[in-house]
Design goal:
By secondary structure, chain A is α/β, with parallel strands linked by helices. In chain A, 38% of the residues lie in helices and 19% in strands. Chain B has a five-stranded parallel beta sheet, covered by helices on one side. The chains are: A alpha/beta (145), B alpha/beta (664), C mainly alpha (130).
Chain lengths: 145, 664, 130
């Protein structure tokens, strides 16, 4: 998307309910600014994120997708984030093969106490995605109005 | 089609300062399904809630989107509001436009634009919401404690005190566990029997507690609140109800050469035995492996001397079936085998013993009546070497040792060394240590007393080799601070063997579908915040089955587990989280991927009859989710290759709708 | 630590395959060592010194070759540090050090005889021409 001639990436962030979503709330409580490009979708656990959701996001024109969960060992459901870690390692490597730059996808562990880390991660990620420009590789032009 | 109402909150100026709330409510008015859209200063206030309630009635709303603060803040509030107006509370979705929008974005245009997109995503989701009803299940008000050591005893007593019936299953003929074998307890040096046996008597006398001794858990079915358990009561060939525990049979039995496991094989018992004087229940047990009568049919001495007539050679194992609301694992620990530690010559010399054997040797009820003697010749030892960390912290020897610190050895070795010097000041006591770890109330002071007041030689270093020479033990060790290799002529060597979970824990965990770590310790539901619960609902952990612990820690964990059990049993009905997984039976292809990833064992397979188009029926196995056990993480939904598994409240379609709305 | 010692330390760690950081300083290697009294630097010190890059004294140690390479320390170490392999690596470092050869490459042809395998000649040249 172009706003005032400047490229504004669309970024989808999946946050687990117990750690990362609370971390995002904490960033808000502390008024730690991060780009409005980031839109958060709440999931119970990072392991609820089906690779299909990420493909769907890219298909519908997202420029970057970030997945946040509890730190390894801290998962509310004991082992959910380990599943996430393995699944995303595979998915991201496949996406990279398909030509989605690996900077467009990311998994980050953000605890409920890490508001600052959340904001910083989103700043970095948005900057990295913005630098890559628009994602055209997987975008489905039939979805465009 | 849903009839959705959108309610945009100003939160004073918290939201309205950065977000044009009017623009948001106007924009969302045109979204599919939205029939009503408004904004108000404080939606969470009574007046705000009334707006929602009135709108639900007036516009016959079937779904609600509240654009406000984080759902972590007021989701519960708005769900209650909806329920009060007769709407299913799970038809409410929150768009977080405060913490995740107005508070982190600076200017009105960007804030407003993002708030609209978040609102659209929430509307898209509500369009696909379905009313959810939490499942309810009754609670059987009875608890099962597996293991009758100090952990199981404390848990059972606390639960019974609260008025709930408890059963203890103990595989040995008596409760008491490892603590019954100890002599004194650190750091206060009270005698273990003096503080443990009154508790054992309390257990025996408590009307709410039943003890199944010499019994094992055979099978566990069901789920939280409704466990079905089969207990195998092994034949002890003595009628428990009649036996008075007088002990005459144990004196008259002619089979005298049975290694006494209570004294770790350092002396012998009879084939019919009572493990120790204060055993609970105090009844005799016949060891079928050694009893001449049971093996050859010729003897029957015990039956002749028993005035009560309690001996029954025809007794068979009995299976008891009982229902429980909660299960507590308290299976405890054992010292590891020293067989593979050749360097310490444990198998070559009787005078190389483990610390637990040392406990028995110094215990007044032990094989030497409390006199510290060498097991080989009964002589008084003059030089005693204690070796710490034998098999603990042993990362490179997985086949014989353990990688973790066993936690209790530093303190009991200090205790042994101190007591030895106290009783026998003529002995030289050496303790070889890698680190002395004494975190705990009055623990370090205790260790320092052993050094400073009792003159125990603590040497930083390790023993490399013990070789029996004549009636002495040559100990070769390093003294790292003096940079010397020491050669000590010792009379007795005591090994602080690492501890490991009891062997019965692994099969039990499988039955309970409770998870374990690589060391076979039970894992807790959360390492910090739920340390006494297993991830499997209704299964709780007490004592060393969860990790190495000393007695004070074990008792506090045991009471904590009891508190959790009481909290569960106090409920008449369990209300579940309705956001659980559900499988579409028609799509399930029985690959069992979901079952494998489920951390809670909530998924089972059932045979289900399907009607085919040609009016025949076919039986197929399909995955079935136990809603009382499922916690709703969603791991299975992603693992399912056929897409049969979905999560209520976070359905695949709903999340995709949110993604689409955001990317639009 | 200067550059050359650091390189030497890296080389010793690389060629021995030992990670001295795994050592928990229990001293069981020294407790078990049958040649303890013969050695200037005992097995646990050896590991510690390599870990800290204190290599020079080890290179100069007169007792470096007193280690029997009996591997008792390797057998007994609870953390799998393998001190004897470090001793081997330091020995190699000494042997390979330039100028410390007891032969010069030029001397080799004079020592050749018909029975000597080709491989030995090649390796002698490789070893002593450094």
């Amino acid at each position: 998307m172009q706003i005032n001639g400047e490229f504004q990436p669309k970024i989808v962030a999946f946050c687990c309910n117990w750690c990362s979503y609370a971390g995002a709330d904490l960033a808000g409580n502390n008024r730690l600014a991060y780009p409005e490009n980031v839109k958060i979708i709440k999931v119970p656990c990072s392991c609820r994120v089906n690779p299909m959701f990420i493909l769907r996001a890219f298909q519908r024109g997202a420029d970057g997708v970030i997945l946040c969960g509890c730190h390894p060992g801290d998962c509310h459901y004991t082992s959910g984030n380990y599943y996430t870690r393995r699944r995303m390692a595979l998915l991201f490597s496949m996406l990279n093969y398909l030509g989605i730059e690996k900077e467009r996808t990311r998994v980050e562990w953000v605890s409920a106490a890490e508001g600052a880390k959340f904001a910083q991660t989103m700043n970095e990620f948005t900057e990295a995605v913005a630098a890559l420009g628009e994602n055209k590789r997987l975008e489905d032009l039939r979805c465009k109005k | 089609m849903q009839r959705i109402g959108v309610f945009v909150c100003w939160c004073g100026s918290n939201i309205a300062g950065t977000v044009d709330v009017q623009a948001v409510s106007d924009a969302l008015q045109n979204e599919p399904g939205v029939v009503f859209s408004t904004n108000y200063q404080y939606m969470c206030s009574q007046a705000g809630q009334d707006i929602i309630k009135n709108a639900i009635a007036e516009h016959k709303l079937t779904g609600i989107v509240v654009c406000s603060c984080s759902p972590r803040m007021h989701e519960a509030t708005f769900r209650k509001t909806a329920a009060a107006a007769g709407l299913n509370p799970y038809m409410v979705e929150i768009a977080n436009i405060r913490e995740q929008c107005s508070w982190v974005h600076k200017d009105m245009p960007t804030g407003t634009e993002k708030a609209i997109i978040l609102g659209k995503a929430a509307v898209a989701k509500v369009n696909l919401n379905a009313p959810l009803k939490p499942g309810e299940s009754p609670v059987t008000k009875r608890a099962l404690v597996i293991g009758g050591g100090i952990a199981g005893i404390q848990t059972a007593l606390d639960i019974a005190e609260a008025g709930f019936p408890v059963d203890i299953v103990e595989k040995k003929p008596t409760i008491g566990g490892k603590m019954a074998q100890l002599d004194k307890t650190f750091p206060t040096l009270d005698c273990a029997a003096c503080i443990l046996t009154p508790k054992m008597v309390d257990v025996a006398q408590n009307e709410n507690i039943r003890i199944f001794s010499y019994s094992e858990v055979e099978e566990v079915g069901g789920f939280v609140g409704n466990f079905d358990v089969k207990i195998r009561k092994k034949a002890r060939f003595v009628n428990e109800d009649i036996c008075t525990g007088c002990g005459i049979c144990t004196e008259k039995c002619p089979q005298k050469k049975v290694p006494n496991e209570f004294n770790l094989g350092m002396d012998n018992r009879r084939a019919i035995y009572i493990p120790f004087a204060q055993a609970v229940p105090k009844v005799a047990t016949i060891d079928a492996d050694y009893c001449t009568m049971l093996k050859t049919g010729k003897c029957g001495v015990c039956s002749k001397v028993c005035t009560a007539g309690a001996i029954d050679y025809t007794q068979k194992d009995e299976i008891i079936e009982e229902k429980y609301g909660a299960i507590v694992a308290a299976t405890g620990f054992n010292p590891i085998s020293m067989d593979k530690f050749d360097e310490y010559a444990y198998n070559q010399s009787k005078d190389v013993i483990t610390s637990l054997e040392f406990e028995r040797l110094t215990n007044a009820a032990g094989p030497s009546a409390g006199k510290l003697v060498r097991p080989s010749d009964g002589k008084h030892p003059h030089t005693i070497v204690f070796v710490q960390c034998v098999g603990s912290r042993c990362a490179a020897c997985a086949e014989k040792g353990k990688e973790y610190c066993s936690k209790i050895c530093c303190m009991y070795t200090a205790k042994h060394a101190m007591l030895t010097r106290d009783k026998y000041p003529d002995t030289d006591v050496y303790v070889f240590y890698i680190d002395v770890r004494t975190p705990g109330k009055a623990f370090d002071e205790f260790y320092r007393r052993a050094v400073e007041e009792y003159g125990v030689h603590y040497i930083k270093g390790m023993v490399g080799k013990v070789s029996p020479e004549g009636d002495k033990l040559m100990v070769q060790a390093s003294d790292l601070l003096a940079n010397k290799q020491l050669h000590i002529e010792a009379d007795l060597v005591v090994l602080a063997a690492a501890i490991e979970p009891d062997k019965s824990a692994r099969p039990l965990a499988t039955q309970l579908t409770a998870s374990m770590d690589t060391n076979d310790f039970f894992t807790e539901a959360h390492p910090k915040l739920r340390p006494v619960e297993s991830p499997t609902a209704g299964v709780f952990l007490s004592g060393t089955c969860q990790g190495p612990k000393d007695i004070p820690e074990t008792v506090s964990q045991a009471s904590a587990a009891a508190a959790k059990v009481i909290g569960l049993l106090a409920k008449d009905k369990l209300t579940g989280n309705p956001c659980v997984a559900a499988s579409d039976e028609l799509m399930c292809n029985v690959c069992s991927s979901c079952e494998r990833v489920c951390p809670y064992g909530a998924i089972t397979y059932v045979d289900k009859e399907f009607r085919m188009p040609d009016r025949t029926t076919r039986v197929r196995r399909v995955a079935s989710v136990n809603e009382a056990v499922c916690q709703g993480c969603g791991a299975c939904t992603v693992a399912c290759p056929s897409g049969a598994m979905d999560l209520k409240g976070f359905a695949t379609k709903q999340i995709i709708a949110e993604v689409d709305a955001i990317c639009r | 630590m200067n550059n050359s010692t650091e390189n030497l330390q890296k080389e010793i760690i690389r060629s021995s395959g030992v990670n001295p950081k795994k050592c928990m300083r229990c001293g069981k290697c020294s407790a078990t060592c049958p040649a303890y009294d013969e050695m200037e630097y005992h097995p646990h010190q050896f590991v510690y010194m390599v870990e800290n890059g204190d290599i020079q004294p080890l290179l100069e140690s007169k007792s470096l070759f007193q280690c029997l390479t009996c591997f008792a320390c390797i057998e007994r170490c609870p953390r799998g540090v393998e001190p004897a392999k470090l001793v081997e690596a330091v020995r190699l470092a000494v042997i390979r050090k330039q100028g410390a050869n007891h032969l010069k490459a030029d001397d080799i042809p004079a020592l050749l005889d018909e029975d000597m395998p080709q491989q030995a000649i090649v390796s002698a040249l490789r070893k002593y021409s450094k």
